[in-house]
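Data availability (excerpt). The following record was deposited with the supplementary files.
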Amino acid sequence: MACIAALVPVNIFAHGFEREKLIDFQYNIPSVESGDDFHFERFEDDVFQVKDTLEKGVQDTLGNDTLVDAKKPFLETQIDYNADDSIIFSISGQQVFLKKNAFVKYGKTELRAHFIELDLEKKEAFAYGIQDSTGTFVETPEFKDGSEEFKCKELKYNFDTGKGLVTEIITEQEGGFVHSEITKKIDENTFYLRNGKYTTCEHEHPHFYVKMTKAKMIKDSKIVSGPAYMVLEDVPLYFVGLPFGFFPFKKKYSSGIILPSYGEEQRRGFNLRQGGYYWAINDYVDLALTGDIFSNGSWGTQIRSQYRKRYRFSGNLSAEYHLNKYGDEGFPDYVKTKDFAVRWTHTQDPKANPYRTFSASVDFSTASNDQNNAYTLDKIVNNQKQSSISYSKRWPDSPFSLSATLRHSQNSRDSTISLSLPDVNFNMTQIYPFRAKGKSGKLTWYDKIGVTYSAKLKNNITTKEDELFNSSLSKDWRNGFQHRIPLSTSIKVAKDLTFAPSVSYEGVAYTNSIRKEWDPDANDGKGAVKIDTLTGFNYAHNYSASASLSYTPKIYGMFTFKETSKVAAIRHVVSPSVSVSYTPEVGVPRDKYFRTYNNEITDQEVEYSIFEQGIFGTPTGAMESGSINFGLDNNLEAKIRTANDTTGNEDLKKIKLLESVKFSTSYNMFADSLNWSLIRMTGRTKLFNKKLNLTFGADMDPYDINSSGSRIDKFKGRLTRADVKLGFQISSKDFQSSDDGGGDPVPTGYVDFDIPWSMNVDYGWTYTKPGLKSSVTQTVRLNGNFSLTPQWKFNFSSGYDFSQKEITTSSFGIQRDLHCWQMSFNAIPFGTYQSFNFMINVKSSILQDLKYQKRHAWQDN
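Predicted structure:
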């Protein structure tokens, strides 16, 4: 027997399998006679030994160094393979052995492992990993077949039938993970599992799972298991078990039952809430119908729907109805309430139509709905609701546009509701009829003559909630039509002096008008004004001319400091404005729309407009008027010297000391008394690197008041209103140093906290004295959050009302991240809405019903 070391070129041809490899190995060759055949057998140490065989149908041509299989080829496509350590073929060519980082690809099937054995005759692959020095398996098989991917400890797979046997597999199925001790692959979509686990924890050793003794898994569809029970931190909870399990997971929407949550309340009793049915209508819209039921007879129902059309629009719609019973029927404390709510949001994609838009934001409900049925503090304390549905259209290459809006607002405290159904506007942007098309260069005064057009249609009402559906459209609703055609131009008299004459036409249309007369028998014989409403179409109009002269200069002041000072300079910008407007006595005679009645108590003629209750008022008749308007705006900035660490030079940093402080008032030139209006002051600024927002304002009346609180024509400055609002935001980032030198250093005396936190403080102070009595309101609100560790989060919100001398509604919450679980505790510790809610639950929505919840509802107080 001779021992030979050789390089043997091997060519294998089989139905698309075509590869030439040089194999370097040692083997022992016995004496070989012509016609003998041999192949290699693998031992545990990967040494191959020659064994004599006599196989029919196989011919060896040693002179050509080829092995040709005379059997019928069976592979349908080319096999790609590779390995870092060795690729070894059997003498028959029917087995291939790949070692270390082995890779095989056949069509859409890919396999990676430490060791792979291919049996071309049986069309099978066998793969396994290897243990490292710590006993951990590495380079374990990774299998991919189209969209199917998984890892396992050991794999046997048949390319022809698609069947396989897998040991210790972990697969991901739509947010969940399936572990199996032994898995049998029947076809592309069907698997049988033994000793399986289903969990939403992505750890190799999950924190929790549902133990399945045996199960059938249909890919991208569901798992159906036999007896199953819960395992938490390796502790089996047999009492949390089921005779069978069902876990659906589909990539597409699917219809199904929504399991209710269980609860208990003192006033309404035991309950099942939010149980019902979910209907996946199609890929664009769904529908969920749920309900609540209480042991005392209360119940509620909800309907929710979401819809979306890509590149067109998206939105959601929800409605709810509740019938609540409190107390026992027949007793004095028995209360029965009926509440409903409708919410709708609709958003149009900006790319859907550049000339037409539609949007909706609707939040409409009965005044007591949130107070009786909400569980979150935000909804409970929300006393203001607003809705808007808007449509707009503009015509390309034209100045015309149309918009229509439906508005709603309500106050839950007093059940006041305001509706505007609809509010339509048609506008024409300014055009210049006397300007030549495409004219450039200097424009004359008539080139600047511009004309616009606007038309409005309104219909609104303000009433109480219980009176809304009994209101009369003609008597209770305020509606009307208005259109205007102003024509104006401007002439630059000097640098900051502008003269602007204008003429305009205004018309309004109403469906009713009023008449007033004195009724001496009213008010128990004391007399009162009687108002009669006359139904019928009425149109009123007026034309007018006016002119204004405005002066708006800017004055700059600069104060510089010494070079040794931290402050380099302070700049003050003053923007005064003065304008004079005058309207001559032209237009429709005033007595056409104005009437008088005699007040027998004062024996005076009182003038009134027959359209004074109209939504647009009355077009001003031919009456001379004029006013002088004064304004003064101030801006104060500073430049601070800051040292540049890289160059040693000094940079100047601009800081706003006062962003704006405005003063304004006006003087009526044609009033017979009380010519001056209120002197108003407003201001705003941001301090401490924009962390502190400050706004303030005040109103001063230049005239005195009499003993009844009415203004009299006597100068005496009175402060009628003043307010200050402070908003301060601070967080841990404000105290963190920067390693790159680009950030602000940590202030001296402060600790560089690693704990993320933030806090907001809002303070408001308001003083009012419009007449003889004054009032002061003062509140402070504090809210924030901090993370003691990356897994613990705390939040809080509270405040204090100084005028009422009480703490406002307060709440706090704690959240704990438990990796695949989460724990939360939220509480309102005192007050009307005192309540708490504790819950520990799985994060994944797939197992959203796997939770424990304990709560105390504020309705029990």
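Summary of structural features: The helical segments are 369-373, 377-380.
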